[in-house]
Design a protein that fits this description.
With 224 residues, the chain is mainly α. The protein has twelve helices and no strands.
Length: 224
């Protein structure tokens, strides 16, 4: 588990019960190591300052209520969430997502300002997180691209029988036009698909896979 994930785990744990208190912060070793301050009290105050640096307003609001920094620290977590959704019109499920995203942003903010890391270590943690996010984004794009390609192939109107094309000609023609529009949009992403696949291979550092990819698609480029 990398540093940001360790911080995120401890930040999420602080949401339970009465929320963020000095006593509960004392129990989080990674947070105490990477938040500035000589005492727990100083680190508590610094963490409150960092919470207010969360970039997205709704995420910041959700985390403030999750920690009991707004809405009453004596309330239990469920009561604080119920109060939060009364003030910010969203479902509890959406509020939970905002909390999680806010905690994730807070973990990154702590890494960026950690007194325990050198500049190179700090940059290394940031680069690692950015790289992982890029990988997930690329994988999501590739999965959606391949799923769409499969749907387009399996639902190609050209595969319909001659009887269907004749008896339901107007409907068939309309569906064919819609299919053609989606197919053009899909094909417009083909170049990006190949670029993201190669980017993933490159980040994995597999030289054999990179050579095979260049030989396969380099030849295609030359031929065209």
């Amino acid at each position: 588990m990398n540093l940001e994930d360790q911080l995120l785990s401890e930040l999420k744990a602080l949401r339970a019960g009465s929320g963020l208190t000095e006593a509960r912060l004392r129990e989080q070793p990674t947070l105490n190591q990477h938040i500035e301050g000589d005492t727990v009290s100083e680190r508590f105050n610094r963490l409150v300052e960092l919470v207010n640096l969360i970039r997205d307003r709704e995420q910041r609001f959700a985390v403030l209520y999750a920690y009991g920094l707004e809405g009453g620290s004596t309330r239990q977590a469920k009561e604080r969430r119920d109060a939060a959704v009364q003030l910010m019109p969203m479902s509890l499920r959406t509020l939970d997502r905002r909390e999680n995203d806010g905690c994730k942003d807070l973990a990154r903010i702590i890494v960026e300002r950690s007194p325990a890391l050198t500049e190179s270590e700090r940059q290394g943690e940031i680069d690692y997180t950015t790289s992982m996010e890029k990988r997930f984004s690329d994988l999501e794009f590739l999965v959606l691209y391949m799923a769409r390609q499969s749907v387009l192939r399996d639902n190609n109107p050209e595969n319909e029988s001659g009887l269907v094309k004749t008896l339901w000609f107007k409907s068939y023609r309309s569906i064919k036009r819609q299919h053609a529009v989606v197919q053009r949009q899909h094909r417009s992403q083909t170049e990006e698909f190949y670029a993201r696949v190669y980017g993933l291979i490159e980040r994995l550092g597999d030289d054999a896979a990179k050579r095979a990819w260049k030989e396969r698609f380099g030849d295609d480029d030359d031929a065209s």
